Amino acid sequence: MVNFKSFGGIVTQINDFMIGQNGEGEGCYTLMTVEDGLGGIVNFVISPTTYFVNQEIVTIGDRITGYYDGNAPVPLIYPPQYRALVVVKENNYQNVKADFFNSQLLSSDGQLKLNISPYTIILLTNGQPFSKSPANRNLIVIYGPTTRSIPAQTTPYKIIVWCNTI
Asked: How much is the pTM?
């Protein structure tokens, strides 16, 4: 299970990131610097497998949220550098949450409960339909309004199932 953690802010830099000594992978990895406006800075390593919600192109000045695995090892440097698993370009028309959702479709932090409708699109990260239950899985949930209850409840527009790789 991925322990999704997030950091959001404004993208201030995007640079090439070298991963090998012989130029292998050149141009395939980037380092994206994000500042939260409160003095917090994070560098996200963007790889070919980083999932961009709605395949959005991110440029300097965009407001994003990057999700990373809180259990993954990281170098002890400043600013912190995380391997981005999911990147969301923020907009006013949708909310996004990446988290583990249990058998009741409640997020691991207990803040969001999903009510699936027949119109909810459920896909894999490769865009193919997912035909099983999304319960007890890591999900990227794209949704609109929520109730004001605790936990907030929503009927998501789209769910992306984040399958564990073997």
From this structure: 0.91
